[in-house]
Amino acid sequence: MPKAYWIAQVTVSNPDQYKLYAEGALAAFKKYDAKILARGGRSSQMEGDGRPRNVVIEFSSYDDAVACYNSPEYQSAKVKRKGAGEANIVIVEGA
Length: 95
Hints:
With 95 residues, the protein is of the alpha+beta class. The protein has one domain (4-93): Alpha-Beta Plaits, CATH 3.30.70. The protein is 38% helix and 32% strand. It contains three helices and four strands. It has helices at residues 15-31, 62-70, 72-81, and strands at 4-12, 35-39, 53-59, 85-93. It has a four-stranded antiparallel sheet with strand order 2-3-1-4, covered by helices on one side. Helix 1 (15-31) packs antiparallel against helix 3 (72-81).
């Protein structure tokens, strides 16, 4: 079964509030045994529109990645992101 990835591009406008979201999201990631591969390091937008913060999270399957996003743990954390920034999140199945 192929792995799956959350790819998030984020613009943080309120770092203190965003930190509450990030801390809350960890419970969901732990529940689904997710592995953070990249989080906010150096990046270069080579084409198209991007955001300054980029995150890649690995899951054991596409179904787990979707379940994590829809989980009560993540949805509770997501509420804390409101007003703290804007995000684009896509779930991609690996090869």
